[in-house]
Amino acid sequence: MAKSKTKSYVLTLKLKTEIWQEHILEKRFEIARKLYNACLRECLKRYKKLQHNKEYQQVIQQSASKEKNERLNELYRSYGVTEYAMHDFIKPMRSPFKKHIDSHTAQKIATRAWLAFEKVVLGNAKQVYFKKQNDMDSVESKTNETGIRFKDNQLLWNGLSIPVIVRENDIYAHIALQDRIKYCRIVRKRIRGKIKYCIQLILEGTPPKKFNKETGEIKHPLGQGDVGIDIGTQTIAVCSASDVKLLVLAPSVENIEKRKRVLLRKLDRQRRANNPHKYNKDGTIKKDNKEKWIWSKNYIKTRNELAELQRKMADKRKQDHHQLANWMITLGDCFKVEKMNFKALQKRAKETKVDANGKYKKKKRFGKSIANRAPSLFLTILNQKLQYEDLQLNYIDTFSVKASQYDHQNNEYNKKTLSQRWHETNGCKIQRDLYSAFLIMSVKDNLKEIDRQKCVDRWDCFIHLHHKEMERLRLQPCVVSSMGV
Questions:
Q1: In the sheet that 8-14 helps form, which strands lie side by side, from edge to edge?
Q2: Whole-prediction pTM value?
Q3: What is the DSSP string of 46-71?
Q4: Would you kindly state where each structural domain of the chain is located, as residue ranges?
Q5: Hey, how many other C-beta atoms are within 10 angstroms of the C-beta on 154?
């Protein structure tokens, strides 16, 4: 399916549903789940047949070339391993459910299954996952003309007409609804133990600017100048001509982590108490035991409580990221950041090491920190906001720049251990992450080397802002240990 070339954004609005309407929606979501699984299963079935083809085995081993790609596409089409082949496959399956699922929605379900399967073919995923019962939480259409559509503040879909809640004082929503609606999506969420439905309108253009109601000024105007970002697993250092900050990513998540650990331990105890036949004497799970797991009512209650807690964590984390990104775009219009491989940092260390006392070091790395703080998500949100301004996030060459090793005063590179949180130059102590952000801000346009002259010119301003930020951090009651404060 061709990707839209115009910019778009999402407006989420609540639905005012009645019980009988929720029952119909629940039934349609379950039909959509079964159609999705059927398409995914058919993709795997056809792909396995293709893998046994001798010509395919020979072509796949060839080096990358235009001829190879053309021949592979021919083989994919001949075996029906394409997106449009899935559209043809789902067409007769939809026929018994045409009162519930329209043709456009069915095609989008097939496309969704194809995109999940395509990741495996391209090597971006190891396997596909089928949707379990009540695990399909969104369905969408292709246009706002047929199928799922929004009209006159109503959601219309195959006989259903559900009012959409648009508050009178919601200026942002009223301005956004003036843009053309590309297509609609229905989303199902479990909030505080209850199922809630909302509609997402994919609108053409860029989001309306938010402004102060009293003064009429834009809340987050785009700044000017270079901005350097040194992002870690838990913290982010930001450096610009007007401000220098060392902040904790998603600070609202901290208070929830302790309660989450308690619930996870409680779930494990309940699971073991309900299923003693599934565990060995040493506490490990019996791999050869194929009996069904038993879930008690208290276990399901605890599991729902954990799901609600994780939903709150996700919402607060996303809210914190948006607030931080809104503040950062006011600092400048040229953002530079190191390219980080967060997936590699999440994995456990392969090599077993022993410390000076002869004890084995833990193989755990930064998986928990990355899961809680989501640094990659923040960069995605920041880049999305910059794209609305016809800008983008500039990723510097990490190995060429070596921001954590460079000293612009001596024009030398000196390696530092991860525990060394301060950089000393000309008798002045500078926080390591803030200094890296300062150097990244001064990287040349080729994104491969640091402009030393810019560092010298900006040094006095940076030192003043750096010391001011250190005073602020020392007055705070709780900071992350990696800051070195």
A1: 8-14, 194-204, 181-191, 138-140
A2: 0.87
A3: HHHHHHT-HHHHHHHTSPS-HHHHHH
A4: 8-204, 226-252+300-483
A5: 14
